[in-house]
Write a structure and sequence with these properties.
binds pyridoxal-5'-phosphate; 8-stranded parallel beta barrel; 29% helix
Length: 421
């Protein structure tokens, strides 16, 4: 994607963000289809002739138009809930290209996954394996599984998005994985298809992922010797992106490093989320007020933590750019960019130097992943619309929620006659 100033206007793939804000209002998410597709292709092409499947991690951004666009390029999907499965199926993507991860799959989710023909269930405990076997026997369909190994490796990322340490809830230790494969082999309803690992998100170095993959490859080798041959190695996702000054490895460099670890007879499954969509989205927001106190200047905007939770949740840094380039020499403000929600944790950016006045339009950058997907209705705020910029220009792919949508399922609504006039 190309996001740059053209004649003083911040544009995304040739569309002026100010014009998009004018048309669809603010706050508003805007994504680059070209950027998303280019990153998927970068993964796909990095595998060269090696057997592989790139399964986009739907939780990063589950907009149907993005799922559909990636499905058309041949993406598989990594899902973590029955809801995500329905989203993928709704786009017409084949269930056979789906891997189902997550520590808490319900019996209903497992049954639905088996009935739909999901390609592989990534198992995270002995109890889950038993539940899958029971569901498979009941539906009369063998379940293809991979055990997700927790290699106890520090991915060096934020504690909330680290998943491969023994104190994390994810996966099973190597020893337990061995035992689970043996019991899987002896169960006619279970087909051990692969082995999986995923050690965390926003990873900015290759070494921990390589170390994790080395462990699961060694395990697959041992299992083959025990007559449990596996077809695929699932190396997970987790590649980081640039929010501030991070220097994550290139997609190609990561894939090539992993391919060196995996013997050529295995299919390699990869589950990238953030690195496909993260840098390809922006959140547009308008300045409502500039409020100066003795301690701080606050730029109060119309987007809030309910629209973009990452700063409040992870102390995450997002670049904030004015949609119209400020005049040279314009007065700048040392400020925090905050939303209207009644929480002091409701901030989008802190300690910035900005030119900002009421009515100005700002773009919060790198907001394509874990952004809209984490949006809530806190403070009875409808979620923003989503716009996809395509070759033909911007297209609304999700309408702005209405307050009426928020009340629709509540049982205590007053009827029209009862409502106060
Ligand atoms: C979240 C998740 C991913 C994707 O992680 P990213 O950091 O977005 O690439 C992949 N696999 C599993 C099992 C996950 O939970």
């Amino acid at each position: 994607m190309h996001c740059d100033y053209v004649d003083g206007q911040l544009t995304l793939d040739g569309s002026a963000l100010a014009a998009i804000a004018e048309r669809y209002g603010t706050p508003c998410y805007v994504y680059s289809r070209a950027g998303i597709e280019a990153r998927f292709r970068a993964y796909d092409e990095a595998f060269g002739a090696r057997a592989h499947r790139v399964c986009y991690a739907v939780k990063a951004n589950d907009n149907l138009s993005i799922i559909r666009a990636l499905g058309r390029l041949g993406a598989g999907f990594d899902i973590v809930s029955g809801g995500e499965l329905e989203r993928v199926l709704a786009t017409g993507a084949p269930a056979g290209n789906v891997v189902f991860s997550g520590v808490g799959k319900t019996a209903a989710e497992i049954q639905r996954a088996l009935a739909a023909g999901v390609g592989c269930l990534n198992v995270e405990s002995a109890a889950e394996l038993a539940r899958i076997a029971a569901a498979a026997a009941a539906t009369g369909r063998t379940a293809a599984i991979a055990i997700r190994v927790n290699p106890d490796i520090d991915a060096g990322t934020h504690p909330y998005i680290s998943t491969g340490l023994k104190e994390n809830k994810f996966g099973v230790p190597l020893d337990e994985a061995r035992a689970l494969y043996r019991s899987a082999r002896d169960n006619p309803w279970i087909e051990p298809r692969g082995v999986a690992c995923h050690i965390g998100s926003q990873l900015t170095t290759i070494a921990p992922v390589v170390a994790a993959v080395r462990e699961v490859v060694a395990l697959a080798g041992e299992l083959a010797a025990e007559d449990i041959p596996l077809a695929h190695i699932d190396v997970g996702g987790g590649l980081g992106i640039r929010y501030e000054d991070e220097q994550p490895p290139a997609i190609r460099a990561l894939v090539e490093a992993l391919l060196r670890e995996v013997p050529a007879h295995y299919e390699v499954v990869m589950e990238p989320g953030r690195s496909i969509v993260g840098e390809c989205g922006v959140l547009l927001t308008r300045v409502e007020y500039v409020k100066s106190t003795a301690a701080r200047n606050f730029v109060i905007v119309d987007a809030a933590m309910n629209d973009l939770l990452r700063p409040a949740l992870y102390d995450a840094w997002h670049e904030v750019l004015p949609c119209t380039a400020p005049a040279p020499g314009a007065h700048t403000l040392e400020c925090d960019v905050v939303g209207p929600v009644c929480e002091s944790g409701d901030w989008l950016a802190r300690g910035r130097t900005l030119v900002a006045a009421p009515g100005d339009l700002l773009a919060v950058m790198s907001a394509g992943a874990y952004a809209f997907a984490m949006a809530s209705n806190y403070n009875a705020r409808p979620r923003p619309p989503e716009v996809l910029v395509e070759a033909g220009g911007p297209r609304l792919v999700r309408a702005r929620e209405r307050v009426a949508d928020l009340m629709r399922d509540e049982l205590e609504r007053l009827s029209e006659e009862e409502a106060p006039k």
